[in-house]
Amino acid sequence: MRLALFITCVNDLVYPATGEAVVRLLRRLGHAVEFPGAQTCCGQLHANSGYRDEALPLVRHYAEVFAPYDAVVTPSGSCAAMVREWYPRLVPEAADVAARTYELSELLTDVLGVTDTGASYPHRVAYHPTCHGMRVLGLGERPLRLLRAVRGIDLVPLPGAEECCGFGGTFALKNAGVSAAMLADKCRAAESTGADVLAAADNSCLAHIGGGLSRAGSGLRTVHYAEILAAGEGS
Amino acid sequence: MTHGTGNLSGADFPRAALPLLADDRLRRNLRHATGTIRAKRAAVVGEVDDWEELREAGRAIKAHTMRHLPELLERFEEAAAAAGATVHWARDATEACAIIGDLIAATGESEVVKVKSMATQEIGLNEALEARGITAVETDLAELIVQLAGDTPSHILVPAIHKNRGEIRDLFRAAMPGAQDVSDEPADLAAAARRHLREKFLSAKVAVSGANFAVAETGTLVVVESEGNGRMCLTLPETLISLVGVEKIVPSFADLEVFLRLLPRSSTGERMNPYTSMWTGVADGPSAVHIVLLDNGRSAVLADEVGRQALHCIRCSACLNVCPVYERTGGHAYGSVYPGPIGAILSPQLTGVAANRSLPFASTLCGACYEVCPVKIDIPRVLVHLRQEAPKSPVERAAMRAMSWVMRDPRRYARALRAAALPLRRRRTLRRAPWPLSAWTAARDLPLPAAKSFRERWKEGV
Amino acid sequence: MSAREEILARLRGALDGAAEAPAPPRPVVDARAQGDPELMAGRLRDYKAVVHRAGPGELAAVLGGVLAGVGVLAVPPDLPEAWLSAHSGRVLRDPDVAALDTVDAVLTGAAVAVAETGTIVLDAGPAQGRRALTLVPDRHVCVLFTRQIAPGVAQALARLRPTAPLTWISGPSATSDIELSRVEGVHGPRRLDVVIAEY
Ligand code: SF4
């Protein structure tokens, strides 16, 4: 199986460590992963903000770049949702490659049949299921099942977990007031867990929550769950 | 394409939201009420084994109905008329107000009792009647609260959701004759409303209602309610005038099964609401029965292939109750009688997007609304679709174009990443950024680009 | 062009070229399917109705007990005499609205019921009277025969005549308008007694 990594523009620019974690993790599990250097951005920002014409070249570009691969994995629920849910509507020819695009926990659980990634992570962790992963992709328990198998982890429930953090792409700028109110509630809920780490499947949501936590002077760190699954033994 | 008029648009959403966000009591009231109803809804929905099939049936019946709306409306009209109802048609809010005003004027009455109806709020009926010297008395408890307070509704189902029991008690004591000593117990408040309205019900000659469903096959109208004020208005007066949006049609009587199961569980979180009335033309009760079929922009919504699903809405308000944006702002920020997620897709379509340009953006696209909608309206999809049509600022457009131009080409993209990369420094975040990112840094730190992008690290060998 | 013609033309124009949307298949409904009286009773109680049971031949006696203390009772014109044989209070047959506002209770039968939701349906048929009758008094005592109980909404609809004036009642009048919590008792009867009678 030829497996490609779609890193996403946000991870490429701001969170390269997440991409490295995915690569490390897959290699540890015995899978080679390629990084097609021509990849750019999935076009979600444009498509969701009402700029379909600007998104279309990005959609076509993605389809072209990833066409040769049997599976594409991405450490972003929201970008995976963009590809799987929206690509077939925007560019029908992209439907095939869209169907072969997986969020990390889907690839691990559904395609590779992995539950235990062999990681160890001796920290107290709360997990925030990000909206697009949860509702559009239907990730369900997958990320949590993977996290539960991590050695030493103390996974604590997040109150109101399924409520949006208020990011919403340009929403955070256009409706900054409402977004900040949602964020404040999410930060309070995360802090109330007593966790050291708040994990999620999307670095953009984590950037939002983390930005709020850091502004509030909180010691709670945000970490992409791929980095937890790749942590410890063998890495 | 002819758009709707009436109470369908207001101020810019982000601006209208600001004072509401600062109102702590409002936030508490909303959180308490929506939290209560979410839990109830989840419990009764969980009881139904075939809930997903039921939702799909609801969606499919509505889609089929919309596809055949003209024929079904004609069939409804014919059946209702055969049963003794008089059917009127209204192109827009003004025409509907005129028809209803004339019908009331012809009875010689100067006061009418009203059953809660979104359509009458949409067309601004109460104000139009007042201008003709006719008083419309709202009889639904929440509507009565809003009317006594001189306020506007903020929720589809519970227009006074923004008020808590203490505020309602104070209002009743001040504005309701004979209620000076009422307590803040909901049962006591309800009893005060019962005393206050009883006389009106027993003496009213004209009632105005909406309808939840209109059955094409039989000409039957259906009103779903809780308090019994609906039954009072539909049964006791001599003249009954019902304003019905053209999208309220369901093809057959048997189709009601699906909606009578979906609606109460989704709206009040009950297996069944206390009262549902169904009547066909002149039956037992009013001797003059009028039905006003309303377009007011619905035909324009129907013309939009993606957006027309907004017409499937059965006004259960489940999407409002789960919406994190609605929970923070309440309904008034939406500027339309239709607030929340459904309002954000319905209002701009009824009025044309230009008249409601901020509403399609009043959502994070989190999808909680779609998940609960009993007729599976894909609200996030319609929002994105409307964003496409919404007018945009030239600056934003230029920025989006530039970004797309860079990102569609791997070399340009790689160069941009390199240019953005920042050498390692102590702080990895920014506390203040220039516009437009200043909106972000108002409440959150902004992460800075890494010293090296992923692709560069990959080249160096991960 | 009249408003009617114009609206219909607008709607037809809006659907120009629209793809067909087939009607969903209608499940076959067995109108004679019987609902479970136990479930019915439980669901009625959930919504604060008071449930009484009457075995074969016990209806009049049970009603006598339920109606004890009712000074003035309203009944529909065709209420079977036998139902009242153990009741000694004053009975008004089909009183007008003003009189209804002063009675202590109204006694009627029902047309069908829905066990799943604890709903009784009146259709102005035998022993039910006009709609106002069960609306204005503060207490409604309703006799429901076990054979009238349908399992679900679909079967109940199938048993009803669509054009009859129908009132679906699930518990006493209630409201959720204050803080979205349900409280019983607004404009309709604040007390609902259902006598489930075996036939
Ligand atoms: S859009 Fe759906 S969830 Fe929202 S009010 Fe309408 S039917 Fe209910």
From TrEMBL, chain A:
Superkingdom assignment: Bacteria
One function term, GO molecular function aspect: oxidoreductase activity
Gene Ontology CC terms, in alphabetical order: cytosol
Domain Cysteine-rich stretches: 4-83, 125-209
InterPro entries tied to this protein: Cys_rich_dom
Protein name (database record): Fe-S oxidoreductase
From TrEMBL, chain B:
Lineage: Bacteria, Bacillati, Actinomycetota, Actinomycetes, Micromonosporales
Annotated LUD domain residues: 73-282
Protein name as it appears in the record: Iron-sulfur cluster-binding protein
Lactate utilization protein B C-terminal domain residues: 388-460
NCBIfam families: LutB/LldF family L-lactate oxidation iron-sulfur protein
Keywords associated with the record: 4Fe-4S, Electron transport, Iron, Iron-sulfur, Metal-binding, Repeat, Transport
UniProt xrefs under PANTHER family: LACTATE UTILIZATION PROTEIN B
Species per Swiss-Prot/TrEMBL record: Actinorhabdospora filicis
KW Iron (keyword) present: yes
GO BP field: lactate metabolic process
Automatic annotation (TrEMBL), chain C:
SUPFAM superfamilies: NagB/RpiA/CoA transferase-like
Every LUD domain range: 100-196
Protein name: LUD domain-containing protein
Organism: Actinorhabdospora filicis
Lineage: Bacteria, Bacillati, Actinomycetota, Actinomycetes, Micromonosporales
